[in-house]
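Need a sequence for this fold. Nothing fancy.
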């Protein structure tokens, strides 16, 4: 027997916003992907390196599931989250929601999903699930991964049970839009200013504009840091541009969010912020290109140029966020 929910299965560019779009459209709330990302104050930066990593990681957004929590709080959504160490209970949590006609969000390790490429471990991946039968789970993933896809129940169970960096305990969640929820437009300014405050006041030097500045110094050492430069540097560049970021390490999404906001909010601060993030998006793509070229050619000068661009980006994004924070005035 197959249980399927009738949904709008549009795949988007980023996994978490894709899942949020599926769940919210089913509730009658249809927002663009940039608006979902921006209202969830999703933009950030982290330079992450450690003994358990083969190579440094550049992240351009808040940690997995933080965007969902931010969006739910900002729009007054009812967010029901289930976590458990029991695979049996984890399945019951999902199957009962789908049986009741509600699509479910899942956080899991993409490595174990049958359709997913490339085969790398990433336990912060998020998908929407809208059906199942005796062998198969019906999911919605990003457009680049196929949109509406299927995977085996065994693979899904392994993906949900995975451990490691960013893993959650079989996390599943549903969203409900209450009748008295505030309009998304009324929450734009608080979302932007909250994102700006966090970016401008990072608790450690690896985050926010300080993290970008740090990356600008350390990227120059990446040929020595890499175990296999021809593999590691192009892979890092690929993740920046093609790893579900929407391009330019999520800066394209935030640029488009600000552009959409400027259609309804008349503000010089907003227009300036949009212009600066449009410039930043271009520089991030140039940075990724230089990193890939350095790995392919072994030319350290490319990394010096990338480091210079990252220094410029730190200053540029700091200026952009300082300007956007003034929206609260």
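Here you go.
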């Amino acid at each position: 027997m197959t249980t399927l929910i009738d949904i709008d299965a549009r795949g988007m560019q980023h996994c978490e916003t894709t899942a949020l779009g599926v769940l919210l459209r089913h509730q009658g709330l249809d927002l663009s992907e940039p608006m979902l990302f921006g209202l969830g104050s999703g933009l950030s930066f982290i330079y992450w390196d450690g003994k358990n990593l083969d190579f440094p990681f550049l992240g351009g957004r808040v940690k997995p599931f933080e965007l969902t929590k931010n969006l739910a709080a900002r729009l007054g959504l009812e967010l029901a989250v289930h976590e458990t160490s029991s695979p049996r209970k984890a399945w019951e949590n999902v199957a009962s929601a789908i049986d009741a006609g509600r699509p479910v969000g899942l956080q899991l390790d993409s490595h174990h999903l049958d359709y997913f490429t490339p085969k790398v471990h990433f336990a912060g991946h998020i998908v929407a699930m809208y059906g199942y039968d005796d062998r198969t789970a019906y999911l919605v993933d990003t457009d680049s991964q196929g949109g509406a896809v299927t995977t085996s129940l065994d693979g899904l169970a392994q993906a949900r049970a995975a451990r490691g960096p960013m893993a959650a305990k079989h996390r599943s969640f549903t969203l409900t839009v209450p009748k008295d929820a505030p309009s998304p437009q009324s929450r734009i300014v608080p979302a932007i200013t909250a994102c700006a405050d966090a970016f401008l006041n990072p608790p450690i030097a690896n985050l926010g504009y300080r993290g970008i500045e740090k990356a600008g110094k350390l990227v120059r050492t990446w040929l020595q840091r890499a175990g296999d430069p021809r593999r590691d540097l192009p892979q890092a560049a690929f993740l920046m541009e093609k790893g579900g970021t929407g391009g330019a390490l999520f800066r394209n999404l935030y640029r488009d969010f600000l552009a959409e906001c400027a259609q309804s909010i008349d503000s010089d601060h907003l227009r300036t912020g949009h212009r600066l993030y449009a410039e930043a998006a271009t520089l991030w793509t140039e940075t990724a290109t230089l990193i890939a070229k350095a790995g392919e050619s072994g030319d350290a000068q490319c990394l010096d140029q990338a480091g210079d661009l990252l220094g410029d980006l730190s200053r540029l994004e700091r200026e952009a966020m300082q300007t956007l924070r003034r929206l609260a005035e």
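For context: The CA atoms of residues 213 and 304 lie 13 Å apart.
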